[in-house]
Amino acid sequence: MSPSVDQLAILWYPPAYDIRVEKVSVPRVEHPDDAVVKVRLAGLCGSDLHLYRGTEGITEPCICGHEFVGEVVELGSSFQPSVPCDRPSLYSTLKVGDRVISPFTVSCGECHFCRVGFTCRCAESRLFGTPNTPGGQAQYVRVPKAGGTLYRLDEALAAYTAQELEAQCSTPRLADSSLLLLCDILPTGVFAAFQALNHPKTLPMMTSQPYPHSSALITLKGILAPSLHRPQDTVLLIAVIGLGPVGVCACVAMLDILHAKGLDFRLVAIDPIEARRNKMASIYSKMSRDQERGYLEVASIEDSRCIIFEWSNGVGCNVVLEASVVGNSSALSLAYELVRPFGCITSVGAHSDSAVPFTGRELYDKNVSLDFGRCPVRAMFPMALDLLVRRQDIFGDVGGEVSLVDKVVGFSEAATMYQEFDKGKCGKVLFDPWK
Ligand SMILES: [Zn+2]
Ligand SMILES: [Zn+2]
Q: According to the UniProt entry, where is the signal peptide (predicted)?
C-alpha cells in the first residue's frame, strides 16, 4: 500500500534546543538504489545531543534520528531478481514488506572500505539525521544505497533455528525494542570490546607469550627462551569509563568474550552517576557465573583510581574503554591516567573539535595506543545480533531493572524527552511514530 502524501516527523531547528513535531512530505525513491522504510521504532541516542545542543555547526532544520527499524514499503529499480554478481545480494533479495534494520550510517557495500569491513568509512557514507540525509525519527525514511546499508532481519535470523531462538531468548520472537539496539549502541559496544581485546598489545596477556612472540606473525623457531610469565601477568585489567547504554553494551560484550575464551580478568566499570552504576551491577549479577575467571566491580571515578591502584600495584590497566559517547575530554584524561605503559585506549565516543587532553610526549612516555572512531555497524552486525539473541534477558526488556531501554513513547513527547535526556533525567528512549 502506498503511503499517503504527508507524514509526521521530529525536526530540529537551529540554533539549538528546539525540537518540533511537524507534517512533512513522505520521502520517495529518488535513486535506483533507494528504499523507503516505514519506521516501526526510532531511537533517541547520546550522539543526537550534539545536534540538539547546536554544536554540529548545522544551520538548517532537519529530521532527527539515526537509529530506526521498520518495514520496506518502496524499492528503487536496482532491486530486481538478477543483479550483477559484484553488487550486494540484497539488491536481488529485498522485497516490499521485509523487516529491516538500518545501521546509523549509509554504506554502499561495494567500495574498498565496505569490501574489507570498514563500513563506517564507506566512500559514500552519510549519517542519518542530517540535512542531506533526513533521519529516522519520522513515520517514513529514505535509505540511500539500501542494498549495501540495510539488514533483512529474517535473513539474519535464518542462521538460528526456532528451537535455538526459543532456548536462547525464552521467547521465539526477539523483542522489537531490542532490535533497535542493533542500529548503533550494541554493535558499538561490541566493537569497543573487540577492538580492545583484539589489540596486539593485549596479546601477551591472552597468549602467555611475551611480546613480540605473542603475535601470529612471528614464526621463528628454536630461539625462544622459556616464558617467564607469572600468573599475574595473564590477568587482563580493564576499565570501562561511562555506563550509559553504549558503556553497558561494551561491558556485556567484554564479559561475554572473556567468559567464552576462559580468560583471567578484572573489570572496573566507572560512572559518576549512582543510578547507572546500580544498573550495571544488576546486569552483572545476571551474567556472573560460578566458573568465571574474573569479576567486575562498579565504581565512581574517585573509587576507580584506588581499585586499579590496588589491583595493579599502581601500574594501571591493560586496556581502557572510553564509552562516554558525547566524548568529553575529562573521560579521556581519566583514560590516560588509568592506562598502564604499553596499554591501549579505545574510544567510541563521538568527539567534538576540542583537542585531546594529552601531549605527544605523554603518549610516547607510556607507549599508549589510541583507537578512536565510529563503529562499522554493518560489519559488526553478526556479532551484535548473536549477543542480542543470547542475552534477551538483558536486552529484551523495557523499563526494568536491567533494561537498556527506559521507555517507548509517541512523538507528542519528543520535545520533553529530548530535554530530559539532555539533562540525564532518563535513559534510552524509543519513539513509536504510530502511537
Ligand atoms: Zn546512536
Ligand atoms: Zn562503501
A: none
Distance 45 CA to ligand 1 centre (A): 4
Q: Residue 320 forms beta bridges with which residues?
A: 239, 345
Ligand nearest to the CA of residue 135, numbered in listed order: 1
- 222 CA distance to ligand 1 centroid (A)? 50
Question: Which pLDDT tens digit goes with each residue over 168-182?
Answer: 554 456 888 999 999
State the distance from the centre of ligand 1 to the C-alpha of 369, rounded, in angstroms. 25
Cα angle 356-334-250, degrees, rounded to a multiple of 5: 95
Nearest CA among 258, 248, 266, 253 for reference residue 307: 266
Rounded Cα distance, 143 and 30, in Å: 10
Pick the CATH number of 6-183+376-431 from 3.40.50.300, 6.10.140.1670, 3.90.180.10, 3.40.50.2300: 3.90.180.10
**Percent of the chain predicted with pLDDT > 90:** 76
**Using CA atoms, how far apart are residues 395 and 390, in angstroms rounded to an integer?**
9
Tell which CATH classification among 3.40.50.800, 3.40.50.720, 1.10.300.10, 3.10.129.10 matches the domain 187-217+231-372: 3.40.50.720
d(Cα 186, Cα 179) in Å, to the nearest integer? 10
Beta bridge partners of 67: 43
Distances (CA, A) of 415 to 46, 65, 91: 15, 13, 37
Q: What is the pTM of this model?
A: 0.93
CA of 198 to the centre of ligand 2 (A): 24
Give me ligand 1 centre to Cα 233, in Å.
37
